[in-house]
Amino acid sequence: MQYALLIYEDHDAYPGGEQGEAWQAILNAHTAFGGEVAQAGIMRGGAGLKAVQTATTVRTQGGQQTVHDGPFAETREELGGFYLIEVADLDEAIAWARKVPLSKNGAIEIRPTIGPMPE
Amino acid sequence: MTDRALDALFQQAGGRVIAALAARFRNLDLAEDAFQEACVRALSAWQQGPPADAGAWLYATARRVALDQLRRAEVRTRLRPEAPPPEPTPEEMAMQREETDLPDERLRLIFICCHPAVAPESRAALTLRLVCGVSTDRIAGAFLISEPTLLQRLTRAKRKIAEAGVPFEMPRPAHWPERLDAVLSTLEVAYAQAYQDAAGCGPHAGFAQEMLALSGLLAERVANDAEVLALAATLRFAEARRRARLDVDGAMLPLSRQDPAEWDEALMVEAERLLNRAAAVGRAPGPRALQAAIHAVHAARRRTGRIEWGAILGLYDALLQWRDDPVIRVNRAVALAEVQGPQAGLAALSALDVARLSTWLPYRAAEAALLQRAGRLAEAAQAFQAALALNPEEAERLYLQAQLRACG
Q1: What are the residues of chain A with a beta carbon less than 8 Å away from any beta carbon of chain B?
Q2: Residues paired with residue A7 on neighbouring β-strands, in sequence order
Q3: B142, B207 in Cβ contact below 8 A?
Q4: 3-state secondary structure string, A19-62?
Q5: Which of B87, B161, B172, B180 has the most A C-beta neighbours within 10 Å, making it the best mutation to test the interface with A?
Q6: Using CA atoms, how far apart are residues B368 and B382, in angstroms rounded to an integer?
């Protein structure tokens, strides 16, 4: 089955932003983790996301669309990136989710993906 | 055969039949539906009495029902021209095998129902429903929720299991500790419900019997795990005391005041044997072994006539290393009061988060009892009143009222 591992982290986890030490450290950790996932032959995709200050949201409500600055919801923990992996079952997905690098506190949400579009 | 006898037979066979179907078809809904249908067919087929092996008959029938359902679903899929040719599913592979004996897959079903990805309150309900065959109205009654709410929880849990990819295999060694822990805590939750349910109801022992059987099954299959054995022991110690828990007026009797002659000796001996086996596994005792050991110290009173409170205090201290929660802190304070006097117990209680715990019944009741022991009767009366204001169950209410009167 294919799972998305969605990475949520505290937004104060990276003092100094992309120039800070924590940022550099987490990039290295993700490079190593990504290598391990690729080595296992289960990597199907993924990306790191830029800071939430760069987010723009298009919201549709009652047929009306508005564009505004910021993420869809203001929360302490924000989506920072994701991996797409192909594993046998939820237990394996959980085992990989445990190994996703985090700078400090955070959470990995595991979501099975809907199967591929029929041709 | 009476309807009640048939129902009992269906419930008894249900766990094994549903577990075998679930393992074969990897689909909990299909397993449950097929079993129900097999029971309906049994009602007319068994008019002259059930076959010698009712479970095998139900399994063979349910398996045919499930295969028919899958074939029909497959035909429907094939009729849609735009649908891609289906890959062989585990169900189809299962169809090609002709197996009619009834394998015991209950352990596997327990692990599926108790997966940590299923909401804790649903795990217990799902296990009771599928593995123990307890009817939904009884489960709803024990969990103090309406039957529609329970059915909704069960449906949601089954959908989660199907869609999130909860494995239908036994957990692999790497996932074993976490998966097993979820199973054991589910059993604890379910038994706690059965235990409360029974206070004041005498013979209506909730589904305690099913929980004993289930923990026994686990202890038999996972025989080298001390925590599994210890939990099976704890449930038996607790269940052995059921008759002694109420006095003639239906008021609760605290463990230390129960009459050991009222305890179920056979169950106590079985519990002690399980705990000995847990100890023989070696390794430092885990939280469930420590809890079972506390029960064992109390149980020893039926031979020695006294309670070794020093040993109990030591066990609670060890337990705190595993679980530092208010339940254990309050019980430890009670044990401390027995060893060092009520003042020491009261001091331990007031060191806790009093603001948060003052509306929690076990805290208030323990505080009141220690104040009473210390001879501070006016304060004790106040504390008993505060405890009574927290809506205790009938049996505990009667007990607290009697204590309050004794303070006056």
Answers
A1: 1, 3, 88-91, 93-95, 110, 112, 118-119
A2: A81, A108
A3: yes
A4: HCHHHHHHHHHHHHHHHHHHHCCCEEEEEECCCHHHCEEEEEEC
A5: B172
A6: 8
CA separation for the pair B271, B274 (Å, rounded): 5
Q: Distance between CA B121 and CA B117 in Å, rounded?
A: 12
What is the rounded (10 degree) CA torsion for B383, B389, B390, B393?
100
Six-digit token pair at B165? Answer: 């990819």
CB atoms within 10 A of CB B262: 15
Phi and psi at residue B384, to the nearest 5°:
-65, -40
Count interface pairs A-B at CB distance under 8 A.
Answer: 32
pTM over 0.90: no
Two tokens at A71? 């993420």
Of the candidates B248, B228, B241, the residue with the CA atom closest to the CA atom of residue B182: B228
For B75-122, what is each residue's pLDDT tens digit? Answer: 877 766 555 555 656 655 555 555 567 888 999 999 999 999 999 889
Q: Which long-range contacts (CB under 8 A, 24 or more apart) does B38-43 make?
A: B38/B62, B38/B65, B39/B10, B41/B65, B42/B6, B42/B10, B43/B6
Q: Are B388 and B401 in contact (CB under 8 A)?
A: yes
Q: What is the DSSP letter of B317?
A: H
Q: With an 8 Å Cβ cutoff, are A118 and B84 in contact?
A: yes
Q: What is the DSSP letter of B259?
A: -
B26: left (phi over 0), alpha (psi -120 to 50) or beta: left
Q: Tokens 């002690």 belong to which residue?
A: B272
**Residue B301 CB partners (closer than 8 Å, separation 6+):** B260, B307
**B117 at interface of A, judged by CB pairs closer than 8 A:** yes
Q: Give residue B127's identity as a one-letter amino acid code.
A: T
List, in sequence order, every residue forming a beta bridge with A111; answer none if it has no partner: A4
Q: What is the pLDDT of residues A59-108, one digit of tens each?
A: 999 999 999 988 888 788 899 999 999 999 999 999 999 999 998 899 99
Which residue reads 């609670």 in tokens?
B316
